[in-house]
Amino acid sequence: MKINNGLIKFPCPFPIKVMGINADAFTSAVLAIFRKHLQLEEFTYSSRLSSSGKYISMTITFTAKNRDQLNAIYEELNSHELVVMTL
Question: 31 FRET partner, CA 20 to 30 A, in 3, 38, 48, 85?
Fold first, then answer.
C-alpha cells in the first residue's frame, strides 16, 4: 500500500548522500545509523573519496517507509560529529 506523505509516496526507494571527514570511523558510524533505523531491512551503499582524500561521500539507497523514518535518519546523521552534510 502506497502512503502519500506530501510529494513522496511511501514506501519508495530513497537515496541519501552523506558526506564527512575521511576517517576509519565514518563508514562504520553511518552504516550503524542505518542499521539502527532500518533494522533487518536491506540497503545498498557506495562510497567515494574526494580528490584531496580529506572527505568521503556515501550514497545509501533503501526502501523508505514513511516521513518519520526519513526524518529520524537525517536527524541522527546530521548530529554525528564526522558528518559534514547530508542530501
Answer: 3
- What is the DSSP secondary structure assignment for residue 62, as one 8-state letter? E
Backbone phi and psi for residue 80, each to the nearest 5 degrees, phi listed first: -75, 140
Percent pLDDT > 90 in the chain is 83
Count the domains in the chain: 1
Which among 68, 54, 56 has a CA at the least distance from the CA of 29?
A: 56
- Domain containing 25: what range? 3-86
Q: What is the pLDDT of residues 37-70, one digit of tens each?
A: 997 778 999 999 999 999 999 999 999 999 999 9
CATH label of the domain that carries residue 78 = 3.30.70.260
Confidence of residue 6 (pLDDT cuts 50, 70, 90): low
Give Cβ neighbours of residue 31 (< 8 Å, ≥ 6 apart).
45
CA distance 29 to 13: 22
In DSSP terms, which residues pair with 4 in a beta bridge?
Answer: 9
